[in-house]
Amino acid sequence: MQNKLALVTDFDGTISDDDFFDLIVNKYLTPDALEPWHLYLQGKMTHIEALGRVFAQIRIPEKELLAFIDRIPVDGAFFDTARYCKERKIPFYICSAGCDYYIKRILGDALEKYDICLVTNHGEYSPADGLKLIPPRNSPFYDKDVGISKAGVVRFLQERGYKTVLCGDGPPDVAPARIADAVFAKKFLLKKCREANIITQPFNTFGDVLNYLKEI
Ligand SMILES: [Mg+2]
Which pLDDT band, with edges at 50, 70 and 90, does 3 fall under? Predict the structure, then answer.
């Protein structure tokens, strides 16, 4: 299995400690700003539409937003894992239902340095219009509900002979967890996998994932 492994990971709450969504809502938005999100939870709005409408309500100078993003903590072992994957030529995909605006800012040059493939929505910020989400309509992984399909990425790799290891924590990670060859889960995803009898391994940090990759 060793030569044909691929790693597919979520970003928010998996690489970062907490979701950008939760952090921004708690710090800068009022409860009524969450109305689109409630509509999503009731199945009346798509994930990307709801997320975009919530993010569009951010009204702070960009400098303040960037400083806020810079303080979001990241799992330190993530970088060790990315380095290991590059050394072992294990394809490394970050798939996020969020957007590149904050992911690129947080990960900096690590994306290029470790040949990480980032599959996510594009994000543009202005204090007048907030954070706008633009889904990658021309991507082979485009999905109209989330913007990108994490399951599509897993399938793409499997069709090319890779055993895929998925890491995640939230609702958009359930569909790829159903088809991935190994699943590392925390929080909501862990609970869902257990309910759905999806074989999964709880994890606290990417150190657990790195140990697994080294052992198999
Ligand atoms: Mg997440």
Answer: low
